[in-house]
Design brief:
- By secondary structure, this protein is of the alpha+beta class.
- The chain has 2 domains: about 140 residues, Jelly Rolls; about 50 residues.
- It is about 50% helix and about 20% strand.
- The protein has 8 helices and 8 strands, in the order ααββββββββαααααα.
- α3 crosses α4.
- It is globular.
- Pfam families: cNMP_binding.
- Keywords: Activator.
């Protein structure tokens, strides 16, 4: 798994191989079983953040009626940023649960600061990753609110087709903002359209 992390780091930094190796060895990598809750809605603030090397993590909220609403799925080479540490009086507004056995880099605010002091370029790398992440999130949100449910599903099939087989269909439907029945109809219609071509 550390090799995977080193390969990813190479895309964002000009740190020497030796420096990358040192950073990699100083980073905590944890394994989590399917069903593990990284954060529960209502938990105390956390200073942890995660980077998925292998597996799938679901972010969701439970609304006042008790219904689960899926906000995101994080898979390989995606960062899971937790912002609750910025306001220590606020509890977590969402939950993070492993949908698969997962392996992740686990960071915390204090360790991050120490590493930035030791490797100044690491801060630049992290900022670049954040800029890419926030840009993608903004683009996805804009596309989501301006598209139909069928367009949202087509986008998933185009950009993240693995989600269709990796996550339960009712959770995928929730992520798309539709009911499981609507998702079934969309899939059926798209399959019929394929056969006609």
């Amino acid at each position: 798994m550390r090799e995977k992390l080193l390969k990813y780091m190479t895309n964002f930094t000009t740190l020497s191989e030796e420096q990358q190796q040192e950073i990699s060895e100083g980073i905590l990598i944890e394994e989590y079983k399917k069903g593990t809750h990284l954060i529960r809605q209502g938990d105390d603030p956390t200073i942890k953040c995660y980077f998925v090397l292998q597996g799938c993590v679901r972010q969701y909220t439970i609304d006042e009626s008790g219904k689960e609403v899926t906000a995101n799925f994080y898979t390989e080479e995606q960062a899971i940023l937790t912002f609750t540490f910025q306001d220590l009086s606020q509890s977590s507004k969402y939950a993070l649960t492993c949908l698969e056995d997962s392996i992740m880099v686990v960071g915390d605010f204090d360790t991050e600061k120490e590493m930035y002091n030791q490797y100044s370029e690491l801060e630049t790398m992290t900022r670049q990753m954040m800029e890419i992440y926030l840009g993608q999130a903004q683009n996805e949100f804009t596309a989501f609110i301006s598209s139909t449910p069928e367009e949202r599903y087509k986008s998933i099939m185009s950009k993240r087709p693995d989600l269709v087989t990796r996550v339960p269909q009712h959770q995928l439907a929730s992520y798309l903002g539709i009911t499981p029945e609507s998702l079934s109809r969309i899939k059926k219609r798209m399959n019929q359209d394929k056969r006609r071509v």
